[in-house]
# Entry
Amino acid sequence: MAKNKNWGINTRLAHGGNDPHAYHGFVNPPVVHASTVLFPDAATMASRNQQYTYGTRGTPTSDALAAAVDELEGSVGTIVVPSGLASVFVPLLGFLAAGDHALIVDSVYAPTRQFANTVLKRYGVEIEYYDPLVGAGISVLIKPNTKVVFTESPGSNTFEMQDIPAIAAAAKAAGAVVMMDNTWATPLFFKPLDYGVDISIHAATKYPGGHSDVLAGLVSANAATWPRLKETFIGLGIPAGPDDAYQVLRGLRTMGVRLERHQQSALEIARWLEGQPGVGRVLHPGLESHPGHALFRRDFRGSSGVFTLVLDGGGQAQAHAFLDALEIFGLGYSWGGYESLAVQVNLSDRTIAKGPYEGPLLRLQIGLEDVDDLKADIAAGLAAASAD
Ligand SMILES: Cc1ncc(COP(=O)(O)O)c(C=O)c1O
# Structure
């Protein structure tokens, strides 16, 4: 089916990727479990001149998901990998080599830092962390051997907004590849490639999957970086399994309506929290009080459902009292599913973006439940924290 470029976002989410008439009219694409692909004759086998050649190189299932994501991201190509963390490390391995220098935002997702500090350093890559508020000032940190600038905005857990166009322009001027972990915003609320980023990264485990039952990652590249990204993906042999790719495409169909609800509920709860006793501040870039709100308004079309609440004083005991009093919010990592979650934030790995904050940080993932129930649950947590 020819896709209409003027379709609204929910129409594109509903119809992107596959063509039902290519599979006898079935609305969803087939889940192709595959290693071997057969060739009709020796000449075709030798030339590999057919659409599919081996399971690791793509199937109709992974292609349907990749095509749907390319439409959303405006990318030339997308790879589908088995976790969000894989969607971080595959491009990093692809564009860095011994002797290179990489600039990574200090408010990056902690396992990304862990990967850089262990594997990348072991392979001889020089790693440097930069202040998320650096903006165009990143140019003074760029060295002749800087090959990658890795951004994530807003920052994991502390939600600093980065000036992505300014950072991307400085990096590009120096010939570095710009990567962005865009998991929080999804391509619905921010399209990195439109702002100078080369490679957009998503833990599809979060909003695209949406139901806390699948691990997957997506990496979408512009024309300049796609050949190297694809070569790295094929070289590593790391495709997502077909059932997981299918689940993510299934999740995309409803991602727009789910995100509307996550956005609305999270903003309502964040605003309400700002007036509650025992709250030091609320770190949500969609709030007018957030120091990055102007950047957020300039570049982003919306906000998702994850933000952090800072208690007004206290320490571990108060944070644990808050978490243990919660009934609806589960205590768990990850986010982007239908259900609300809470976790205490640990900033011990930070070198720059570490506060000071008034008290412990509690990250909340606002799910699809009723807002009044969630407020009552949080109020019980705050009461327990102040009683401790
Ligand atoms: C910003 C961000 N990027 C990447 C990931 C990694 O995703 P996964 O859990 O699928 O490895 C996460 C997971 O929490 C995340 O929050």
Notes: The first strand starts at residue 77 and ends at 81. Residues 158 and 210 are 22 Å apart (CA to CA). The chain has a mean pLDDT of 97.
